[in-house]
Amino acid sequence: MRRLAAATCAAALAMALAACSPDVMPVARPSAIPIDQATEVSDPPPSAQPTPQMTDACSAGGVDDSAYLLSPQDIWPQASETGQGTATYELDSDTCHGQTNRESPAAADCARAYPYYDSDHDMLVEFTRMGVVLLLVGDDSEMNSGGQDTATVHEVVANLGPGAGSQLVAQAVNCGAKREGDHYKVVSHGHTIMLMRVGADQIVALNFTDPTLTEAQRSALLDAAVERASH
Predict the structure, then answer these.
(1) Mapped to the 3 state alphabet, what secondary structure does 39-100 carry?
(2) CATH architecture for residues 52-61+78-229
(3) Which of 51, 79, 82, 215 is the most buried (most CB within 10 A)?
(4) How confident is the model at residue 103 (pLDDT cuts 50, 70, 90)?
């Protein structure tokens, strides 16, 4: 498998896990100091410098990696209104690991869709801790004429460092995933809501909220996602 290139952070939808822009608190502009009161101000010591957010430290930009993800047209070829948001994170940088080393572990929330974290920040911290080196996230939506989502597919592609695959599998199994053939799945109310395939150096997972997709269509989408991500 060719290593995925550094990628974009292009969000077309306001999806929870597709959001790739860091949360930034507004900082008020200091009022001007009258000339007769102005004094020389030295730069603050390094310890006083603001700490970058995890999304700042790990976000990749400059190249469109959406070619490695499913498109809305792959999922709903007959839909007239669709949308997509994507985000890419390089997790093997020294800066990104430095952030992780300062963080306490965050518990997975199995009530949430894969990858089980309440925020992008926690997802990046824990995926870095488990040894993921590159992470792509895609949110595809079918929408009505008013622009509201009627169905979504959330895609996660992770390139793995040593030992990462077994940790991600253990996490998924702990949250109810069952092995079935060459993949893991989570079923709720008679529908498959998550499929995940784990390779030697990559995992691909899909979360579904579209009840109209058949089980065969969901399996075919996982096959297509794995093929697309491995290019």
Answers:
(1) CCCCCCCHHHCCCCCHHHHHECCCCCCHHHCCCHHHHCCCCCCEEEEEEEEECCCHHHHHHH
(2) 3-Layer(aba) Sandwich (3.40)
(3) 82
(4) confident
